[in-house]
Every structure is written in C-alpha cells, then in structure tokens.
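Problem statement: downstream parser choked on a complex file, so we are re-checking the raw output for the zinc ion run. The parser issue turned out to be on our end (a line-ending mismatch), but while we're here, posting the original submission so the record is complete.
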Amino acid sequence: MTMRLAPSMTPDTQFFWDGLKNHTLLIQCCTQCEVVRHPPRPMCPRCNSVEWHTIESAGRGRVFSFVMPQHPAYPWFEYPYIVALIDLDEGIRLVSNLCGIAPEDASIGMPVEVFYEHFDNDLVLAQFRPVVQL
Ligand code: ZN
C-alpha cells in the first residue's frame, strides 16, 4: 500500500481516527439531546452541550454525491478515483472514497458499506464499497 497524506488530527477528532485503527467507525453523539454530528466538534450545534459520547456505526449508508478529482495529480492515488459524500444510516454525512467500482457504474443513492484501508504511515481510513446484492 502506498503512502497517503494523513488528515489533520486534533484532540477533538482523535477518537474518530483511533476508532478506525480498531476497525470501528465512531460517531459523536450529544449526551444531552442525543443528536449525532460529524465532523467531530466540541459543542452540540442543537443544544450547545459540551457533553458527548460515541456510538458505533454499522458502516452502512448511501452515496449522496461523488466526484472524480483530476488535478492536481497526487502520486498516492491511482486515477481515476472517486471522492464520495456518504450518508450513513445513523444520520451523518462523511467524505470518503468509493472503491471497488468503475466511476461510470457509480450512482447517487447506491447502497455502500465501510471497509478499513491501512497505509504505510500507520494511517487507517474508512473507505466505502458497493453493497453486494445477493
Ligand atoms: Zn445536544
């Protein structure tokens, strides 16, 4: 696996990245009003509480939108690749990659599931692939 530029990690987001290393997709949840939020931040946007806990996502969702970036060309990506907004079943939206599918076969609303990709620099990312229809 190639190196990949690591996302910026802060004390507010560390739990999310640590969860991925354990193959767990964690979602921040307000302890006061139970609203879920992503990306992680210190205060609830609904009730302003700073008390929060995490819930574990089942890792299923749907493609909200996607693009195939072209420029600038980064050496750690194989082109074409898909950057997708994923709406998780738990009610948050996150930015990720849609893998295991040709761009021409990707579609808005398609069901996807998470998998965890390990990179050389000790980085683990949540990636998504189409749910196999049986
Ligand atoms: Zn709240």
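For whoever reads this later: The chain has two domains: 12-56, 59-134.
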